[in-house]
Amino acid sequence: MAFLDEQSRAVLFEPPEAYEDAQARYALTSEDIVFVKEHRRSHNRLGFAIQLALVRDLGRLLRIGEVPPQAVVSVVADQLGIDPAVFEFYAQRDETRREHAREIVSALELQPVRTSDYRELITAAAREAAATEQGAPIAKAVIEALKERKLLVPMPELLIRLALAGRAAARRQAYRELIRDLEQPSIEALDQLLAERAGDRSHLGWIAEAPEGAKLKNLKGLIARLEVLRSAAIPDDRRKTIHANRYGIIARDARILHAREIRRLTSERRYATLAAFVIERQASITDLTIDMFCKMIGSNRRKAEISRTERRLKEAEVLDGVALEHLKLGEALLAARASKTDLASAIAASLGWDGLVASMAAARSVVHPDRSNEFDELIKRHKSLRKLGRLMFRTFSFRSFRADDPILVAVDHLRALYGGRKLPAQVPLAFLTRKWRRCVRPNSADIDLRAWEVAVLVHLRERLRAGDIWVEGSRAWRSFEDYLLPRPIFELMRAEGRLGLALPDSFAEWRAERTATLDAKLKELAKAAAANAIPDAAISDKGLSISPIREEERDSIVALSRRLYVLVPRIRITSLLAEVQSWTKFLDSFTHYRTGETANDEAALMAAILADATNAGAERMAESSRGVTIHQMMLMVDRHMRSETYATATAVLVDAQQAHPFAAIWGDGHISSSDGQFFPAGGRGEASLDYNAKYGKRPGASIYGFLSNRFASFFSRMIQASEGEAPYVLDGLLHNESSVEIYEHATDTAGATETTFSMFHAFGYRLIPRIRNLGNRRLFVIDRDPAYEPLDALIAGTVNMDVVEHHWDEVLRLKASIAAGLVPPSVILKKLAASPRQNRLNQALREMGRIERSIFICDWLLDTKLRRRSHAILNKGESRHALARAIFLHQLGELRNRVAETMAYRASGLNLVVNAIILWNTVYLSRAVDYISSQGIIIPDELLSQVAPLPWAHIALTGDYLWNEIDRPLERFRPIRANRFNPNNFKFP
């Protein structure tokens, strides 16, 4: 790959072609103009001035026969009041150009580059290259160093050689620093990674293929790998000895290079790469092991609950029979008493003594002393859970904010027990919840140690998820405080007004503003309720009743859509992607992880993207593609395909679609929705994914996607089926890379929590969810007012402003940490919800959210347009799901890969191809409408706005994948299928 691409080379070494750039870079100072006017004749003045400006900008003089761009000539001529046309007379004698060059060099005290200057210039390049592999900034650093030393910029070839030498020096220096002072045992441990294990695999390859399914066997495998890595004794902090960007490049090398490739590297680079491998794999396997531990505890709890439910159902059948028998017996006894006959005879005649004995035995078999213990089934799994604890406590060190945290004391006791010691007479119980305390200590004297041991593991899991307890060596399982801005930095940002929030800094100011807003909304709603004037809704003593939103007529829209798409060209998905690439160059976003260069094999890159999008995988895609091998595809995957390059490429497509004039027919682009789409797991993927009863009995994951009202699918991410959607609602709005500006966002009920409402207001967004059973939701007030009386049936209570005021600073700090990009909203909100230490902070957020939700409910009830707007954008999202499902067709649409990163790439590839189809459909739908207009037929906008760019019947998604159009892109649009046009199909009332 070239050190500099054509664009970078032009920027660094050539004067600008654009007039605006020339104006910014070629402004003459008053001293320059005086200097220029010392020369006679206008053409000499102009040529001299251009040379002078060129030296100041690019550090070089005019070359022999060089003609600057017209923009540069015009900008300089305008400043001198000279006609730009006279430049053609300049330097007709080359001697004049050389004389002027010598004069400028002398006046500015410039010197040509000498060999003795090379060392300093290479050092300057190396300083810049410490942070990047990209050629442009390194070459620019050399140019700046030349200017500082008053040296003329040499020919590009020499400067590039100096920059390359600097980059090579930076690489060597980074390798040395990363392995500096490594002791001999560590070196030997690194060498051992390249040695072969049984089965013709290196230790490095074995470690890299860490299992992800939540099983005890896999947990043992992870810990075995971790022990090998720890034998190298390379701490995580060693990565901080070099620049983060440079370390990231080495770490990427460590991730994608095979053992045989690493063996061929120079000694310094080999050991640095292996050191990065150890650092990264230690962290990732630690994270994966803790995650697997938490999943296995959760899985055991779920299985215990299922077993308990099944047992209760069986017991219910037995007890039902016992109840019937005893009812019969009771009736017989009561009848005997009434008739004053012998009771024993009544028993014998009804149930019989043998029957009574059998009935009591049946009842006794299902009635247990621990019947009220809801954890009894989980405690029965004590043996398998102990195996988990033994492995985890032997391997990891846990830390807490409290030095004497009772649960960590309990962990230490269990660690000692597993090591052969006895438990002390008194074990810590302070960490237990009320339910577990009743289970562990059923009476005041005795402690059930089996239950206590299980309780330690369960509570440890919850505290880990909350961030109250963290693990040494982990990056994902850190303390809650690690995710927030340090307090001194927060206070400085607050003092300087840089929190980046749509909230006032003062609690009093916030309270006054929200009180006034909520009061006005409530009074407006109360007035409407009193007059029975709420649109399509009514409030009575029984509560709120709302009429469902009436669906618009769909048959005519479906027919119009079908007739329009008849005119759209038929196309293979490969040709569609190639055409979209020719419009947008979105593949240029997939830069090389080391050099930043674009991919040189676009067909292989496109095939790898489509392999993700269709769920085919690289091997199947290679078999179905002509001219693309799996080796070519894997090179693209390893070197160009990353989460960030996927995000950038998607943003290119989103921006292109949003900017297309026809997209305005669907809306302003400022409203969006988000929703999850479930994909079941299959094969090896089942062990890596979770269950959710909402989706049935199969494990799987949801792809949580965001769609603008112009149909741009601007963000998506994969989440476990067991996770709630609410924490992720803000992720797509704050962390997408497109230029989409969202003001309103709709979700379904799952995304509309009180905390979500609070967060949306803090970042200046309006949440407009479609809440199921809205009539069951209640309003909250800040201060009671008699004017609210018509709403009494809806008002649940008052907002606890005291808790908000008490935690105001921490609320701001939390939200400012999110705004600063320090932590994604989903990460911190999940930890916040799980943390008992942060329950008051979480309560403060919920109280703020109650205000925002109450304001929203008032708006929702009073504004039917708002209801329809939310309903419409959510329906668009559901339509987008159908397209995604059609694309994700291979392997029965199941997630069968066990590696989380691969599954995340599937979601990214799917969203990219969805956007490519939406853009292509937008363009050709526009052309079809233009053709119809040229025939004298105008389709009303209110109808056209309901025709979506989502159909795919005209796109061949399967079959052989041909990539010939990548190398030979079309020079014009494909023709509309005019022969299918029938004017009788486009008659409107």
From TrEMBL:
Keywords attached to this entry: DNA recombination, DNA-binding, Transposition
Pfam families: DDE_Tnp_Tn3, DUF4158
Superkingdom in the source lineage: Bacteria
Gene Ontology MF terms: DNA binding; transposase activity
Record protein name field: Tn3 family transposase
Residues covered by the DUF4158 domain: 3-163
Record's keyword annotation contains Kinase: no
Annotated signal peptide: none
Domain Tn3 transposase DDE stretches: 576-961
Source organism per UniProt: Phyllobacterium myrsinacearum
A single BP term in Gene Ontology: DNA transposition
Similarity-based family: Belongs to the transposase 7 family.
Keyword DNA-binding on entry: yes
